[in-house]
Design brief:
It is a single chain. This protein is mainly beta and about 110 residues long. It has one domain. About 10% of the residues lie in helices and about 40% in strands. It has a five-stranded antiparallel sheet, with no helix packed on it. A hairpin with a 2-residue loop joins strand 1 and strand 2. The protein is flat.
Length: about 110
């Protein structure tokens, strides 16, 4: 880990006026965290947090961020991640093994 932190600020505008803004801090340097994953016409966000065992789906609706608690991807650490944390303590890694049997998702896994 090089100490870099990645955050996103999403700004919703109506012509020249800011009508909404959201700060996303999850450290995942990849634009694939934003998309319309459930094809409902609303922008979605995948919260893939450090040392979390699930990737959560949030939908940006009008002026709020809504957690879709029914849709998530369950993830586990790799053997290498577990060994590193056992030896060196907590790391800033994302768990990266997808457990499809425990996940509740609605489209083909493409991570």
């Amino acid at each position: 880990m090089d100490g870099g932190i990645f955050s996103y600020i999403l700004i919703k505008m109506d012509e020249d006026k800011v009508i909404g803004s959201w700060l996303f801090y999850n450290g995942f340097d990849d634009q694939r965290v934003f998309a319309d994953f459930d094809n409902d016409g609303e922008l979605d966000y995948l919260d893939w947090g450090v040392r979390k065992n699930r990737i959560s789906l949030y939908t940006i609706k009008k002026d709020s961020l809504v957690n879709n608690r029914d849709k998530f991807i369950f993830v586990l650490p790799t053997k290498g991640q577990t060994e590193y944390e056992d030896t060196h303590g907590i790391s800033n890694e994302w768990y990266s093994i997808v457990d499809k049997s425990k996940s509740s998702w609605f489209f083909k896994f493409c991570l």
